[in-house]
Amino acid sequence: VFNKQYENILTARPEPGVALVTLNRPKALNALNSALFAELNEALRLIDADKEIGAIVITGSERAFAAGADIKEMKDKSFAEVYTDQFLADWQDLTSIRKPIIAAVSGYALGGGCELALMADILLAAPSAQFGQPEVNIGTITGGGGSQRLARAVGKSRAMELTLTGRMWSAQDAVAWGMASRVVEAGDAADGVLPVVREAVALAREIAAKSQVAVQAQKEAVNVAFEQGLSEGLRTERRLFHMTFATADQKEGMAAFAEKRKPNFTNS
Ligand code: CO8
Predict the structure, then answer these.
(1) CATH fold for the domain made of 212-258
(2) What is the DSSP string of the chain?
(3) With a cut of 0.85, is the ipTM above it?
(4) Which residues approach ligand 1 with their CB closer than 6 A?
(5) What is the pTM of this model?
(6) What is the distance in A from the centroid of ligand 1 to the CA of 195?
(7) Does 64 participate in catalysis according to the annotation?
(8) What is the pLDDT of residues 181-236, one digit of tens each?
């Protein structure tokens, strides 16, 4: 996957254990079309299967994470066409990736771009990040989880206000409302890497150094909080917790603590 030439994305391994996927349609502000999503899904599938990789960063350019679904691609499609083709249904393939995904957002994250960021497990924002669900302004509505994930992330009243007006909101608002973890201040970008991307890669590296069985089970357990009720979620969490006792990494991690040494995880 790292040697492959894609047309709409770039793939790299900036640090051991970390995959960096960069959306790369600069002329269209990374507008998301079917070809881009086909490539993104393929790359993520290969990365998920790559034992050397423990966590994934998705980013865009400084100016735009992604300015939405490609309006020019979809504007003339008929209802019958989008319905029978399940247009853009494959966008949510991303949510079945086991490895943690960190979105590093700089510039515009609008429409489907905002929804893509909301599908990530962790969202870090540059001060320039501008989020928005402007679909209402072009006569349509959110289609990639905006109504559901945004409402869960920021609450009903804000989700309504934001989606009904199509207004943009800032990185600071995204953090204050609980949608993003933090704003990564613009430092010196001497090496040409955006500070928010550098920070996301460092975070991914930290996660990739843990037991991958534990990391993936932990991600699964947190995600249940967004899919099931509390009692079912707690039951799933306890099952996954118990499951870790069947792994070598749990034995190693707890033995290392008791022996006052660093654990040597084998992802088994
Ligand atoms: N689709 C296609 N092309 C785009 C898009 C887009 N979403 N956004 C920008 N572009 C293109 C522009 O057309 C322009 O191309 P060209 O140079 O050929 O004219 C180029 O990118 C640069 O854009 P601008 O000249 O407009 O740049 P500005 O700095 O003036 O403005 C904005 C930047 C404010 C971001 C502006 O481009 C804009 O408003 N873009 C559209 C934003 C939008 O409405 N997004 C929502 C789209 S709808 C959607 O995402 C539905 C998701 C459904 C998901 C379903 C999943 C299952």
Answers:
(1) Lyase 2-enoyl-coa Hydratase; Chain  A, domain 2 (1.10.12)
(2) --S---SSEEEEEEETTEEEEEE--GGGTT-B-HHHHHHHHHHHHHHHH-TT--EEEEE--SSEEE--B-HHHHTT--HHHHHHTTTTGGGGGGGG--S-EEEEE-SEEETHHHHHHHHSSEEEE-TT-EEE-GGGGGT----SSIIIIIHHHH-HHHHHHHHHH--EEEHHHHHHTTSSSEE------TTS--HHHHHHHHHHHHHHTS-HHHHHHHHHHHHHTTTS-HHHHHHHHHHHHHHHTTSHHHHHHHHHHHTTS-------
(3) yes
(4) 28-29, 31, 67-72, 88, 91, 108, 110-112, 115, 134-135, 138, 143-144
(5) 0.96
(6) 25
(7) no
(8) 999 998 776 788 999 999 999 999 999 999 999 999 999 999 999 999 999 999 99
